[in-house]
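Re: the multi-chain job from yesterday

Posting the exact lines I submitted so nobody has to dig through the queue logs.
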Amino acid sequence: MKAAEVIDDLKRRFPNEPEYIQAVDEVLTTIEDVYNDNPEFERYNLIERLCIPDRIFSFRVSWVDDKGKVHNNMGYRVQHNNAIGPYKGGIRFHSSVNLSILKFLAFEQTFKNSLTTLAMGGAKGGSDFSPRGKSDMEVMRFCQAFISELWRQIGPDTDVPAGDIGVGGREVGYMFGQYKKMAREFTGTFTGKGLEFGGSKIRPEATGYGNVYFLLEMLKTRGIDIKDKKVAISGSGNVATYTAEKLLALGAKVVSMSDSDGTVHIPGGLTREQLDYIFKLKNIYRGRIREFAEEYDGVEYYEGERPWHRVKCDIAMPSATQNEIDGDDARALIAGGCMAVSEGANMPSTPEAIREFQKARLLYAPGKAANAGGVSVSGLEMAQNSQKLSWTEEEVDAKLKQIMSDIHTQCVKYGTEEDGYINYVKGANVAGFMKVARAMMAQGIL
Ligand code: NDP
Ligand code: 2IT
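And the result, structure tokens for all chains:
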């Protein structure tokens, strides 16, 4: 089947999965040339096999809250592709989770993991359970119930989950504990673990730091210095806060953060002390970003709004969720003088927004390239666990920098257009695709 036929066919077969179709569409429209140059791919119906997940597990997760009430959530794991390594990808706990979202994330993860240069296939899982407002004990009981179902399908050389929205160190710890008990083994089946039980240095920081390292590579292509640049960040979770930390260390100005309730604007730029407050607010008190604006003078809070219309910036680093920048937001960013967008979140820009960024010749890095630092250090955590060793902060950080630079090089190689503009979307998709495609061809029709 031709790429366009595959998209039409998937639209017909999965009409209620818009995010999945959106992600597939973006990849297939950029790899058409290399696909047509390799006629054997079509003979083996490779694209269709690459777009449809290998398998999906779905299950009910029943748990009891602190008042004794019984809740039933849905749990899922999408094992998308393991042509180049064990299935690998995060777990998302959020009320919006459904199969369309997890299928898009697992599909994206397959290409992202291929780009990292490490041996990892693609997967994603999660639940429509929201940890927001739940007690520690409720979160623990939920994680245990979730893993009581999932544990048979995962393992250190089979499928290795990690964190994502709503799943951080606390949740990974509870899930790892339950896995260890059920499977009767102490192995690296999860990444993002605590440092005391097999976690890697720099894993919490990796996605945010990696995104900044990728941004620096992009800026270098135009001879631009990061110092004093105004950066708008969305989100205030794991990715957003460590992005801010690295930016502050490099002398950039972080002018916004957000959560699902609203945006804070910090015209003078976030200080280190203010960032420490946000770390505590989010990780210890599990509070809202509004409370940050209440704590400090000179910080504006815009209820129910995203940063893009409100905040003038040189650089945007969306780090919250999918489709958080639409066409209007993109036009507002460009009109405000934004020159670079580097995606911490997965698929935060709509197709229309991407077209606007590319038309205006912005430096634009899609999530599967720019946020690959997180899963890369997960891959390094797996390597350390296999060796039963742990590397120093400096060692892991140096490897992370090298991987982000290698990903950038691959994007330049496959994405540079005739006029010299680097189409990072095309570069990342082609580079990610070719490795997985060749591995699938070599392994036969499975
Ligand atoms: P966290 O749960 O730590 O933080 C998520 C942040 O985004 C919170 O501030 C949250 O606000 C906000 N957010 C979540 N959903 C929405 C929504 N529907 N609308 C508006 N704001 C929302 O997650 P992470 O920081 O880990 O993940 C952020 C993004 O980065 C996701 O797209 C994830 O897939 C991606 N990513 C994460 C990696 C990782 O290693 N953790 C690796 C690569 C990508 P609130 O508290 O109000 O929900
Ligand atoms: O989207 C992602 O890359 C992640 N949530 C991290 C996955 C991982 O396995 O570390």
